[in-house]
Structure formats: C-alpha cells, structure tokens
Amino acid sequence: MGGERTLRVNPIACDGHGLCAELFPERVSLDDWGYPIIDPAPVSQALERLGRRAIRQCPKRALDWSDRSPPARPK
Q: Within the chain, which residues score under 50 in pLDDT?
C-alpha cells in the first residue's frame, strides 16, 4: 500500500498570485489576502492532472506534492 499524495504550499515562496486556486479549485481556496489554503485531503488519481498543472504553472514554484506514507504498524 503506497502513500497518499497531497498538495502543499511553501508559504515563504508564495506571493499570493492566486493562480493555483483558479487552476485547482477542488483543493485550493484563497484566504482574505489571496494566499492559498490547501485542502489536506489526498488528491485522487482523477484530480492528479489538475494538481500537476497548478504545480507547473505556479509563478513562484511554491506548490509541490507531499507524499505521506501511512504510519508503520507496531510489530
């Protein structure tokens, strides 16, 4: 079983252009100042293409994938 792919934003790199929310509104909304609020839910394969497009077109390269592996089970 693989990890879950979610979207993350680097708040230091982000300038609040808002393009990510336009390109991927299924997982990104904007706060009152125009900075992204990322939905922490895993991105389904059906939406992955939209996520890749938002990552690619971010003017500051502030978006990326965060692959979270499931926690290890105790033995």
A: 1
